[in-house]
Each structure stands twice: as structure tokens, then as C-alpha cells.
Known about the structure:
3 helices
Amino acid sequence: MIIVPIKEGENIDRALKKLKRKFEKTGILKELRERQKFTKPSVINREQRLKAQYIQKLRDQSEA
């Protein structure tokens, strides 16, 4: 459960913004979307490998 403490006299819009930010950081919505469909382990591994290659390529470019 996500709890957002609100100070006395704090704006409701600001509290909602904090709630939305905390909700995104926890990754609940992302996990729910992933659980809606089954993805084969081989596909997951392939995506992770491609992501790692992409990140490594960006790091190599920034060093050069």
C-alpha cells in the first residue's frame, strides 16, 4: 500500500503528484501489464540480451 503523508495546509494537487510519482517508482502498473500475457522465457532472455548490448554500445560511444 502506498502512503503519502500530507502536511497541514498542503495542496491536494501536490499530494496527488507525489502519489503518482511513488506509484510509477514501484512499477506496479508495469508488472500488471506484463502479467496480462505469457511471454516465453527464451523471448525474455533475448530481450534482456539485446537491451544489454544496446546499453553497452551507448557506454562505448560515450567513452570514445
